[in-house]
Design brief:
The protein has helices at about 5-15, 15-30, 35-45, 60-70, 85-90, 125, 130-135, 170-175, 190-200, 215-225, 230-240, 265-280, 285-300, 305-310, 315-325, and strands spanning about 50-55, 75-80, 90-95, 100-105, 115, 140, 145, 155-160, 175-180, 255-260, 305. It has about 325 residues and is of the alpha/beta class.
Length: about 325
């Protein structure tokens, strides 16, 4: 390891010390769910939005709310319902009788961390109100565009088992999420801990703020310095290309893929891999960093065919097969 890399490694290790403190404080409220917590931190570091999918009661909302309090960030929760309007999210013009003029009333989107709860409960015109905010980091009210605060992260939840009264997210919007997380049930021991901690009429668990938004922005600048070898870059590109033409890389699954991942997936996988290395306190990216985060980055970006659905082959199965086939540099 060269001198510059050693120095960078030491700086990253020192700068990432807040992550252990954040995990510990999160653990006082959230039992288990290390998978979800770590990837939410990756989203904050990589400046990417996160889609959380899981049945009700798995602490998705509580985790986002706790995370926001630990980073001293401005937090807003938007409950998506069929009668929600775009103006309820981004804001609108309100007539001020005193001044005889219209004034801007900004919506809850003007926050550091926004929880879009049950995002698939609202129709397309409401979901699309998030598109400009998520991609351009700005919203337009009337004929004026307003920059959103920085950092700005959207955590969206959706329930996979309730189909009635829901509106599936369009592919263009799904692709704007850095990662999609599938949240699973806790094991028996964890559920017993949840019972002891939360099985009271008024559970009272206080947490201490660990960092502030300025620390996040400083960590993001360091993220850009994390070393990624050309061989790792090639590895990432091959993985994404294999989701489009898997047979070219020795994966016989062409008939299972309708559409592969977009170039945005390549960028997202690189950013998420750097963030994962930061979580490990390292100043360089390894192939294992890429493999650790690849399924979460790619699962929602692959559209499978009817044949795949008939054979119960999911996008996760396809990504896992690709990762197991493409040679590691």
């Amino acid at each position: 390891m060269s001198g510059n890399l050693v120095e960078l490694n030491n700086r990253i290790r020192e700068a990432s010390s807040w992550i252990a403190l954040l995990r510990d404080e999160m653990g006082r409220v959230i039992v288990g769910q290390r998978y979800m917590i770590d990837r939410m931190i990756v989203g904050i570091l990589a400046n990417g939005h996160i889609l959380l999918e899981g049945v009700p009661g798995l602490a998705k909302t509580l985790t986002v709310k706790t995370l926001a309090s630990l980073v001293r960030a401005d937090f807003r929760r938007i409950q998506f319902t069929p009668d929600l309007l775009p103006a309820d999210i981004v804001g609108t013009l309100v007539y001020n009788q005193k001044d005889a003029a219209f004034v801007v009333k900004k919506g809850p989107i003007f926050s550091n961390i926004v929880l879009a709860d049950e995002i698939n409960r609202s129709p397309a015109k409401v979901q699309s109100a998030l598109l400009e905010a998520m991609q351009e980091r700005q919203v337009t009210i009337a004929d004026t565009s307003y920059k959103l605060v920085d950092p700005f992260i959207v955590f969206a939840t959706e329930n996979p088992i309730d189909q009635e009264g829901t509106y599936p997210l369009p592919e263009a919007q799904v692709d704007r999420f850095l990662m999609k997380l599938n949240i699973e049930y806790p094991d028996m021991e964890q559920e017993k801990q949840i019972l002891h901690a939360m099985g009271k009429s008024q559970p009272n668990i206080e947490v201490q703020s660990v960092i502030d938004p300025e620390t996040i922005l400083a960590s993001r600048k360091l993220l850009d310095e994390i070393y990624m070898d050309e061989k790792i870059c090639d590895y990432i590109v091959k993985i994404v290309f294999a989701t489009r033409k898997p047979s070219d890389f020795g994966v016989a699954m062409d008939n299972f893929i309708e559409f592969g991942a977009s170039p945005r997936a390549t960028i997202s996988l690189a950013m998420a891999s750097r963030a994962w290395a930061f979580l490990q306190g390292r100043g360089y990216v390894t192939p294992q960093d890429v493999k650790s985060i690849a399924v979460d980055v790619l699962r929602h970006r692959i559209v499978v065919t009817y044949e795949a659905e008939a054979e119960n082959t999911t996008s996760e199965n396809i990504v896992s097969k690709i990762l197991n086939t493409i040679p590691v540099p």
